[in-house]
Amino acid sequence: MKEISSEEFEKEVINGGKVVLDFYSTECPPCEAVAPKFEGLAKLYGKDIKFVKMFRQQNKPLAEKLGVKSSPTLLFFDNGVQLETSLSGGIKRSDIINQLDNMLAPERVKEIKSQIKPAVSEFDVIILGAGPGGLTAGLYLCQSKINTVLIDIALPGGQVSTTHEVSNYPGFIDPQPGYMLSHNMSEQTKLCGTSYKVAVDVSKIDLDKKEVIIDEFETIRAKKIIIATGTSPNLMGIPGERELKGKGISYCATCDAKYYDDKEVVVIGGGNSAVEEADFISKFASKITMVHQFDTYTANKQAQEKLFANPKISTLFEHEPRAFVKEGNKIITEVENLKTKTRSKLISDGVFVFIGWKPNVELFKNKLELDKWGYIKTNEDMQTSMPDIYAVGDVISKKYRQITTAVADGTIAAIAIAKEMD
């Protein structure tokens, strides 16, 4: 695998045969998450397909020319022709494999797949998710000499790692960059001795057998499981959203705000995330239009006061997006006035969506008791409705979802398990 610049693009990519190009950025958790997958697949497919990387921030003109609007973005080329499919954002290993397989003959794909050998690992406790709750549970279990593994589809840190600033975590006088707070949590747990299997695809979770299959070939078994899978951004489900995800529509300000220097941006939402991230985006963008469905913001008062004092930011209250269309380098956001039912168009260089979260329970939701919003019910020891299965953090049913409450959940679950396993 090789890192290239714009000057080498024609030689290495256009004239390079079959090529996959990774545009990455710094301070970009999804970029860090895809990197080990990219490197691992380069070892498998590298004889047939060239794997190259390009630093997006230093190669902006080429990235924009190729339609790259989000980090990371994988582009695929076959003898100088850019293939229609591209991958961006939280990229799964299986999605990369599917595209690589499509570039090769079926016989060759079988040969490559035959090199993948099944593996089995045994632990006392599996923690699914490496956000603050999972990391804290891992730290306490490790200090109790319990053999524990953390599994995550991304890098450790959870949503904290994509938050530009955390001002309310105890012990820090000055606000902390989210990625540094999560990094320090992760390093503390790792140095204690907890095993990490991160930036992986979780193929299957069997809560009855207490087995987890990752990357379709490794089976991990344990005596107990802690679910700390957190939440994911809600999608609006309107025309153009999925098609333009990573191509002008983003869900991560930390990852992509830096690419909107002196440009105009639309931000969808009015809660804490939307208001706080809009303030961060305003450090780069020249103009921000907020679109919010209610007549007032639902964010905390301090965040609202800061937003109202920002001359770059204006708001369309009682409006909702109805469609997104790309015209040239611009994103057209069609919005509806909820009072008059009239529609209008907002022209911008990009759109950021912050409209809340949903619990990540798809792989096991039919096995556990959930509340009416789909969050996992637990008792005071963080035990779920299944024996030996615990849950912590944002994925559980509770009134407040904060870093501090996730850390408390992880502490409680780990102590409860440690006492049971003594």
Account of the 3D structure:
- The protein has helices at residues 9-14, 29-45, 60-65, 93-102, 106-113, 132-143, 178-192, 241-244, 253-256, 272-281, 301-308, 403-421; strands at 2-3, 18-24, 50-55, 73-78, 81-88, 119-122, 125-128, 148-152, 195-198, 202-206, 211-214, 218-221, 224-227, 231-233, 249-250, 264-268, 287-292, 313-317, 319-327, 330-337, 343-348, 350-353, 357-359, 389-391.
- It has 422 residues and is of the alpha/beta class.
- It folds into three domains: 2-113, 3-Layer(aba) Sandwich (Glutaredoxin), CATH 3.40.30; 119-232 and 358-421, 3-Layer(bba) Sandwich (FAD/NAD(P)-binding domain); 241-355, FAD/NAD(P)-binding domain (3-Layer(bba) Sandwich), CATH 3.50.50.60.
- The strands form six sheets. A five-stranded mixed β-sheet has the order 1-3-2-4-5. A five-stranded parallel β-sheet has the order 9-8-7-13-24, covered by helices on one side.
- Helix 11 links the parallel strand 17 and strand 18.
- Helix 6 (132-143) packs parallel to helix 7.
- It starts with a strand and ends with a helix.
Descriptive tags:
Glutaredoxin; 24 strands; FAD/NAD(P)-binding domain
Describe the structure concisely.
The chain is an alpha/beta fold and 422 residues long.
